[in-house]
Amino acid sequence: MKKFLHQLIFFVFVIVGSLIQNSCDAPHSNPFDPANPDKKVYTIEGYVYTFSLPRATLKNALVFWSPENIGSVTNSNGYFKIETFSKKEGWLTVKLDGYKPDSIYITWNSTKFYRDFFLNQIPKLDSIEFYSILLNHYPNIKNVNLIVRAKITDKDNDIDSVFIRNNSLKVNLPLEYNLQSKFYEKEFSEFDFGIDDFSELIGIKFDVIVKDLSGHEYQVGSEKLNRIIKEEIILEWPVNYDSTSSKPMLIWRRFVPGFKFTYNVEIYNDEFPPSVVWSKKNLSMESTSINVDTDLPSGNYFWVLWCVDQFLNRARSRPASFRVK
After folding, report:
1. CB of 94 closer than 8 Å to CB of 57
2. Distance CA 134, CA 225 (A)
3. C-alpha separations of 114 from 42, 71, 110 in Å
4. How many CA atoms lie within 13 A of 304 on its CB side?
């Protein structure tokens, strides 16, 4: 019996040892098994920077590898890294709010691919002015123009041109950059829009389009014409070369157009071309007069009164002349 037990124990040890040996020699065919000698990790890495100089790293940019639907987000240093076990070719795309997306098609020549991206900032519309100006002249002439002024920021400094556009009206009109005001702006006539009356444009939205030097276009905002002030302000005194003191009181008829507004008043000299010698802005809509608070030298002058609404639409009275003794 003892002999049998010794033989049984020996037999068990032999079997267990054989199983352990066979287990150590098992093939590591699982590609995710670190001991798999045939495993290949394909790595994509790089940095994301601004296109503008000086270069700055961009964090939180999404870097997406489409064949495997996997991605990475850049860290505070703009660095990203993507690992895959697939050798599929495909697109690597980078996106970040406020910037134009960029992408590249990758064909593997090795197990590592390095790429830096330089993202172009999408231009930003800081402000937009879209208003009408009506000028009243003698005997009964009204001239209306449309003013468009856009303030646009672009750190990449690669703006080629700026337009206002309405596809349904087939309107695509360029704005001009003003070096002094730093606005893209222009004064338009009804002829520019192919219409007979600017009233046809009230309520119609126009897109503000920015084209960069690479030819890419961005819609950065939109605006519309809200009103044309066609009611006329009547000036009462001085008019028709009335004689006044050096500090005259300017008087006009109560103006009630049916909306909120303010007055601007201007006095011009009688030279050519005339220039403003005195002015006041933002007078109350309840006002019907104002005293000139500086002495005007002897000579001939004329004055005008503007109505300006909350949308910057404005209308100017007919000019009224006077003489300072």
Report:
1. no
2. 13
3. 11, 15, 11
4. 21
For residue 129, the cross-strand partners are 149
How sure is the predictor about 144, in pLDDT bands with cuts at 50, 70 and 90?
Answer: very high
Residue 19 has pLDDT above 90, yes or no: no
Burial group, residue 113, by CB count within 10 angstroms (0-12, 13-18, 19+) = middle
Tell me the pTM: 0.80
With DSSP H G I counted as helix, E B as strand and the rest as coil, what are the percentages for the chain, rounded to 5? 10, 50, 40
Q: Which domains does the chain have, with CATH numbers?
A: 42-119 (2.60.40.1120), 124-224 (2.60.40), 235-324 (2.60.40.10)
3-state SS class at 212: strand
pLDDT in tens, 252-294: 999 999 999 999 999 999 999 999 999 999 999 999 999 999 9
Q: How far apart are CA 294 and CA 278, in angstroms?
A: 8
